[in-house]
Amino acid sequence: MTRQEIEGFITQFPIYQYAFIDTEDLEFSDKVRTICKKECPRYGGSWSCPPAVGTVEKCKQKCLEYDQALFFSSVADVKDVSNMEETLKTQEEHEKMTTIIEKYLKDQTMLVYTLSTESCSLCEKCTYPKGTCRHPDTMHPCIESHGIVVPNLIENNTMDYYLGERLVLWFSLIFFKEA
Q1: Which listed residue, 49, 58, 110, 124, has the most CB atoms within 10 A of its CB?
Q2: Span 100-113, pLDDT tens digits
Q3: What is the C-alpha R_g of the chain?
Q4: How far apart are CA 101 and CA 110, in angstroms?
């Protein structure tokens, strides 16, 4: 499957910006995990977050099994970006789009591994750590959970990170390779 074929498919979606990434150019850092641990309430409470996703080194190895990835963003308009309930509701459309693109690549016999925005919210209450994940094939771990330095990824691909007080940017990173 060519990049042009993927581009032809994704143009039907409200993707704001995208880039094809050579995975060897990704930067991984344990410091990203420090931010997760100190600032994210989902740390240690979800299969899509650390420590459930494994060490940064293990996550890096998983990502580097793929030579390339599609990195893309979408934009949502909110009245108040500091209203987390309102802001998080806008994530759902981005996740639907990510899932459709992921399915398309799988249907083209591609092997994929998908990381997305925030922590997985498929279940009202995650089974971690007492039970197994109910949706391991559809759950998308958070990009940062893998130690990927997202601001550098955005900057290196000349993408936007901030669009103002009322606009939220959501990001996904879909790794892919021929089956």
Answers
A1: 49
A2: 999 999 999 999 99
A3: 16
A4: 11
Q: What is the pTM of this model?
A: 0.93
49 touches 142 (CB < 8 A): yes
1: its two tokens? 């499957």
Q: Which residues contact 117 (CB under 8 A, 6 or more apart)?
A: 91, 94, 95, 142, 143, 170, 171, 172
- Residue 166 neighbours by CB under 8 Å, 6+ apart: 77, 78, 79, 80, 81
d(CA 114, CA 140): 6
What is residue 39's predicted lDDT score, i.e. its pLDDT?
81
Give the pair of three-digit tokens for residue 71: 């990195």
Burial class (CB in 10 A: 0-12, 13-18, 19+), 98: buried
The predicted pLDDT at position 82 comes to: 78
Q: What are the Cα distances from residue 128, in Å, to 116, 125, 172?
A: 19, 9, 23
